[in-house]
Amino acid sequence: MFGRLERSKGSEPMSDINVTPLVDVMLVLVVIFIITAPLLTSSIRLDLPKAEGTSAMDAPKFVTLVVEASGQAYLNDQEIDPPTLAEALQRTAKQNPETEVQLRADASVPYGKVVEVMGIAQKAGLNRIGFVAEPRK
Q: How many other C-beta atoms are found inside a 10 Å radius of the C-beta of residue 89?
């Protein structure tokens, strides 16, 4: 037996489950769920009343008011005189007071004429007026 080397057994495969990485992953998931759970639910619950005349898709509409170089006014591409313009804008304001007036005036129109048209719109009850212009080149 002298001179014989004895072989020692090498390490055997481990058959136990290593729980530490599993616990680490689970703790990360718990933290993620704790942070995101309040974001997924609304904190205020409402029972909104129901009405027939309303719709979620009703956006404020607009009318186009054009004043050309000669001072002639057009409402939605229809030629119109100032008294008729006032009546038409009043009807529009009664239907929807949030209607926006998109004012397009020629660059050569006197400022007084633009203010006059704006006054007619405001007197009719339409206070949302947008000025339409072209970008400079």
A: 24
